[in-house]
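Hypothesis: this fold can be encoded by more than one sequence.
Test: take the structure tokens below, design a sequence, compare later.
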């Protein structure tokens, strides 16, 4: 399937929360460097073996503030001082971004599966 069609399908989906908008944008970021056809969601990982490796390997965002801005509501941004504080006691911002990358990868897989019919 053409990357252009996948991108348009993802753009057309409604995202009601800051997290959903961030996941949607992450999926679009995964697809931005692919020209022409995409045969599987694995093509979107830019050579990484998993979405987590894609995120930790620096293929996406790398700065805490950028990740926080992408995935947080305004009140969460204030609470974390724009990404200067960790999101919670169990995760770093990169862990949160890896979770978002996994969900973005799943979104790409769902779109690919839905268009194969």
């Amino acid at each position: 399937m053409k990357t252009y069609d996948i991108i348009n399908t993802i753009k057309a989906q409604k995202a009601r929360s800051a997290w959903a908008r961030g996941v949607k944008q992450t999926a679009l970021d995964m697809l931005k460097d692919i020209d022409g056809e995409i045969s599987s969601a694995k093509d979107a990982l830019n050579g990484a073996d998993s979405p987590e490796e894609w995120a930790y390997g620096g293929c996406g965002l790398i700065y805490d503030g950028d990740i926080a801005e992408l995935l947080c509501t305004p009140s969460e941004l204030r609470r974390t001082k724009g990404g200067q504080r960790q999101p919670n006691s169990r995760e770093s911002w990169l862990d949160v971004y890896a979770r978002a990358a996994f969900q973005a990868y799943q979104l790409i897989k769902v779109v690919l599966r839905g268009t194969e019919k």
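The mean pLDDT is 94. The radius of gyration is 14 Å.
Hypothesis status: open.
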